[in-house]
Amino acid sequence: MILNIAAYLFVAIDDADALADRLRVRAEGDGLRGSMLVTPEGLNLFLAGTEASLHGFLDWLREDPRFAALHAKESWSEAIPFAKLKVKRKHEIIAFRREHASPLEAGQRAPAVDPPTLARWIAQGHDDAGRRLVLLDTRNREEVGFGTFQDALTLPIDNFTELPAALAPHRDALRDATVVSFCTGGIRCEKAALWLRHDGMDNLLQLEGGILGYFEQVGGIGYDGRCFVFDARVALDPHLAPLADGAAVA
User: Computed over its alpha carbons, how large is the radius of gyration of the chain?
Assistant: First the structure.
């Protein structure tokens, strides 16, 4: 079986170019495929390989104190869903192009709700203070087409940078709700939550670990369909089983 991991960490990296080179050499030596984004604000990893090789790579990476807190969400497949290894040097670990959207800049993360708590809120129809619950999907319309939380607020966007404008007409109607932003693995909902809270939306939380973290911890409670992923598996169901399980073609 092939182990697949999705992981990100916001952390200051002042040697991004050199780090990207080291990561490439190590990952190639371990026979890993997938993508790694290296930026001044942190790392974003989607990798696949044997369990021993991938865990060895993560252990090696966490020896650097900057990445000791890196948490990887795991899933399994019969084949490697990536055709090659790509290591890219970027400015952001997900393009948003707005200030006040990084924990490094804000000095703290946006408040989060963990999957078991969200599952309980979904089941009872409100948060623990009795406020109505609204789930805000920060992904694009293609991803939403594969599945989302029941009754989630989805937006007609193709790129993450379009989210603030698309959400603007809804903000007044959300003032009396507890809004939980979510995405695939947590990066987009974390950035969106930070920026929107800075912009005055103080009733907004982020889902810790995104949909994949939710599936991993509580399954599909309140979720309809699958979660789109950016590789040959296409999408994962709440048991983290892939829609397709063939090797990626170069």
Answer: 18
What's the longest Cα–Cα distance across the chain? 53
103-236 topology per CATH: Oxidized Rhodanese; domain 1 (3.40.250)
Query: Is position 183 annotated as part of the catalytic site?
Result: yes
Has domain 2-89 been given CATH number 3.30.70.100?
Answer: yes
Give this prediction's pTM. Answer: 0.96
Catalytic residue among 9, 70, 183, 187: 183
CATH 3.30.70.100 residue window(s) in the chain: 2-89
Angle subtended at Cα 160 by Cα 159 and Cα 163, rounded to the nearest 5 degrees:
105
Distance from C-alpha of 75 to C-alpha of 238, rounded to nearest angstrom:
11
Residue ranges matching CATH 3.40.250.10 in the chain:
103-236
Q: Are 215 and 119 in contact (CB under 8 A)?
A: no
pLDDT, tens digit only, all 250 positions of the chain: 999 999 999 999 999 999 999 999 999 999 999 999 999 999 999 999 999 999 999 999 999 999 999 999 999 999 999 999 999 999 999 999 999 999 998 888 999 999 999 999 999 999 999 999 999 999 999 999 999 999 999 999 999 999 999 999 999 999 999 999 999 999 999 999 999 999 999 999 999 999 999 999 999 999 999 999 999 999 999 999 999 998 887 6
